């Protein structure tokens, strides 16, 4: 069970519209992780959301220390969310996980595309 401080911190980083759903799945993802990319491209969470209208999900970047590009990608995602929109952050996540993350140029290219 999450304490209130942790819960509030997490809720500050997700789309407020998502918080109104009865069930919100929090997805913690490393934007450089091949397993996270495979999970994303398989569309597992989207399948659940499509099947159950009371369910939504929010993605939180969770960079792992052994992925050197994960932290800059997470920072880019947070910046997109803060200064553009939650939809822009989702588009950035989609772009990075679908096309892969091989260099900082990939992050810059994805941001430019948005």
Structure keywords:
114 residues; 6 helices; Glutaredoxin; two-stranded parallel sheet; alpha+beta; 55% helix
**What's the average pLDDT?**
85
Strand order of the largest sheet: 1-2
What is the CATH homology-level superfamily? Glutaredoxin
Number of domains: 1
Largest sheet: 2 strands, parallel
Low-pLDDT runs of 5+ residues are: none
Judging by the overall fold, what is the CATH architecture? 3-Layer(aba) Sandwich
Residue share in helix:
55-70%
Query: Which fold name fills CATH's third level, the topology?
Result: Glutaredoxin
Query: What's the shape?
Result: globular
- Say how many strands there are: 2
User: Which series of helices and strands comes N to C?
Assistant: HEHHEHHH
How far apart are the termini?
37 Å
Q: Provide a count of the helices.
A: 6
The first-level CATH class is given as: Alpha Beta
Radius of gyration: 14 Å
Estimate the strand proportion: 5-15%
């Amino acid at each position: 069970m999450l304490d209130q401080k942790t819960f509030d911190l997490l809720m500050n980083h997700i789309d407020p519209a998502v918080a109104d759903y009865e069930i919100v799945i929090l997805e913690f993802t490393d934007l450089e992780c091949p397993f996270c990319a495979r999970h994303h491209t398989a569309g597992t969470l989207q399948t659940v959301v499509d099947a159950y209208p009371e369910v939504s999900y929010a993605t939180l970047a969770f960079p792992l220390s052994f992925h050197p590009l994960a932290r800059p990608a997470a920072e880019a995602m947070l910046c997109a969310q803060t200064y553009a929109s939650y939809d822009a952050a989702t588009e950035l996540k989609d772009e990075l996980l679908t096309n892969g993350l091989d260099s900082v140029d990939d992050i810059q290219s994805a941001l430019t595309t948005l």
